[in-house]
Amino acid sequence: MSEKEAEDLSQMENQLPKEERWENLSLANDFIFVKAMKDPEICKEVRTRLTA
After folding, report:
1. Helix or strand run (H / E) with residue 12
2. Are 12 and 29 in contact (CB under 8 A)?
3. What's the CA gap between 9 and 11, in Å, rounded?
4. SS3 readout for 2-51
5. Are the C-beta atoms of 36 and 46 separated by less than 8 Å?
6. Per-residue pLDDT tens digits for 1-52
7. pTM exceeds cut of 0.85
8. 6 Rama class: left (phi>0) / alpha (psi -120 to 50) / beta
9. 12-42: string of b/e by CB count within 10 Å (b at 16+)?
10. What gap in Å lies between CA 26 and CA 1, rounded to an integer?
11. How many CA atoms lie within 13 A of 47 on its CB side?
């Protein structure tokens, strides 16, 4: 992870309400969705499931 990506991640994490732990979030959460879609394998799997 680049320094810029780490900084962006830190900023996004700080925007989450403290009671929302990342382990409890799903793809319905914008932060988790963006992070998941940056992974080509996850993105492909989600697309496949949505169009099946």
Report:
1. helix 3-15
2. no
3. 5
4. CHHHHHHHHHHHHHCCCCCCHHHCCCCCHHHHHHHHCCHHHHHHHHHHHH
5. yes
6. 688 888 887 787 777 776 666 677 788 888 888 988 999 999 999 999 989 8
7. no
8. alpha
9. eeeeeeeeeeeeeeeeeeeeeeebeeeeeee
10. 22
11. 8
Number of folded domains in the chain? 1
Query: CA 36, CA 34: separation in Å to the nearest integer?
Result: 5
Cα(5)–Cα(49) distance, rounded to whole angstroms? 28
**Which amino acid, residue 39?**
D
Please name the amino acid found at residue 34.
V
Count how many residues are written for the chain.
52
The residue with tokens 């989450």 is 16
